[in-house]
């Protein structure tokens, strides 16, 4: 008797691929372990390729299994998204747009977009998730986000990217620091200071840009701490554990014992870009991008 792949096969496969343990996967699915093993074996026979390597000590994915796991995650997630969009549309809404962002985008860009979406398309629902650059790219590729706001120079070819905001950089100093806007002249005044930077994991582009600001001034900064959160960086500066360089827009929304000196004369700029998957078929994405681009052209 010939068998055909069914949606249940994908769910069973994902459970084993996630757990890499048949008993745990069977418990998760509320089925028997022998039954699960039969379903996976049947799936492998239909596909004519092994998906798992099994021995007494562990279960691992084959290269084909690794590939299938990424594809099935996308398929299953897309089905869930489609079901949710259908429910929203049937209730009279346009659907949902899922937005990822860096903390700095929440200063102006994301709030402005949410207001414009509310005013222009009140039937579009929105969800927000603060994520790193890399996490946003992965989520968009897997179809768990529709749009992201990142600080990246490059993204995979399947994604679109456009700069939506250029910002200056500012020094962040303890309030009691002897240098202020009046006596600041050049960056090399800080050559002997300890620097606190956003981690390269947060944004390699930002990290490299800040390093280039210092190198253009004739020194390589001594980096004492790294963080992925602006508030943490400002707190470290407040406690005189170093100084920082951040996008100027980040100074708003915090009430801490630090001061800012805008670096207006340097060539470097902090660029914020919007990214999206080119073949994303979410009907709300076009409306969202149009509003983003309209605002960025002002």
Automatic annotation (TrEMBL):
<protein>
    <submittedName>
        <fullName>DNA-binding transcriptional regulator, LysR family</fullName>
    </submittedName>
</protein>
<keyword id="KW-0805">Transcription regulation</keyword>
<dbReference type="Pfam" id="PF03466">
    <property type="entry name" value="LysR_substrate"/>
</dbReference>
<comment type="similarity">
    <text>Belongs to the LysR transcriptional regulatory family.</text>
</comment>
<dbReference type="InterPro" id="IPR000847">
    <property type="entry name" value="LysR_HTH_N"/>
</dbReference>
<feature type="domain" description="HTH lysR-type">
    <location>
        <begin position="5"/>
        <end position="62"/>
    </location>
</feature>
<dbReference type="InterPro" id="IPR036388">
    <property type="entry name" value="WH-like_DNA-bd_sf"/>
</dbReference>
<dbReference type="GO" id="GO:0032993">
    <property type="term" value="C:protein-DNA complex"/>
</dbReference>
<keyword id="KW-0238">DNA-binding</keyword>
<dbReference type="GO" id="GO:0003700">
    <property type="term" value="F:DNA-binding transcription factor activity"/>
</dbReference>
<dbReference type="InterPro" id="IPR005119">
    <property type="entry name" value="LysR_subst-bd"/>
</dbReference>
<dbReference type="Pfam" id="PF00126">
    <property type="entry name" value="HTH_1"/>
</dbReference>
<dbReference type="GO" id="GO:0003677">
    <property type="term" value="F:DNA binding"/>
</dbReference>
<keyword id="KW-0804">Transcription</keyword>
<dbReference type="InterPro" id="IPR036390">
    <property type="entry name" value="WH_DNA-bd_sf"/>
</dbReference>
């Amino acid at each position: 008797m010939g068998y055909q792949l069914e949606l249940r096969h994908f769910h069973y496969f994902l459970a084993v691929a996630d757990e890499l343990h048949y008993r745990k996967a069977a418990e998760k699915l509320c089925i028997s372990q022998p039954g699960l093993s039969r379903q996976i074996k049947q799936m492998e026979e239909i596909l004519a390729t092994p998906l798992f390597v099994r021995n007494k000590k562990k279960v691992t994915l084959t290269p084909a299994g690794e590939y299938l796991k990424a594809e099935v995650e996308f398929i299953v997630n897309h089905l869930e998204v489609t079901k949710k969009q259908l429910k929203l549309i049937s209730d009279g809404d346009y659907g949902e747009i899922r937005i990822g962002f860096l903390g700095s985008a929440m200063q102006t860009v994301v709030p402005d977009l949410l207001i414009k979406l509310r005013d222009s398309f009140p039937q579009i629902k929105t969800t927000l998730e603060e994520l790193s650059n890399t996490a946003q790219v992965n989520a968009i590729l897997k179809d768990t986000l529709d749009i992201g706001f990142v600080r990246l120079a490059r993204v995979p070819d399947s994604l679109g990217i456009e700069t939506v905001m250029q910002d200056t950089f500012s020094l962040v100093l303890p309030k009691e620091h002897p240098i202020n806007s009046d006596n600041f002249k050049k960056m090399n005044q800080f050559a002997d200071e300890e620097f606190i930077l956003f981690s390269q994991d947060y944004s390699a582009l930002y990290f490299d840009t800040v390093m280039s600001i210092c190198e253009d001034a004739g020194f390589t900064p001594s980096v004492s701490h790294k963080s992925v959160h602006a508030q943490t960086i400002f707190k470290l500066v407040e406690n005189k554990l170093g100084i920082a360089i951040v996008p100027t827009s980040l100074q708003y929304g915090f009430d801490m014992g630090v001061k800012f000196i805008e670096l207006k004369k340097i060539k470097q700029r902090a660029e914020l870009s919007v990214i999206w998957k080119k073949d994303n078929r979410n009907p709300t994405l076009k409306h969202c991008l149009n509003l983003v681009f309209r605002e960025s052209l002002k």
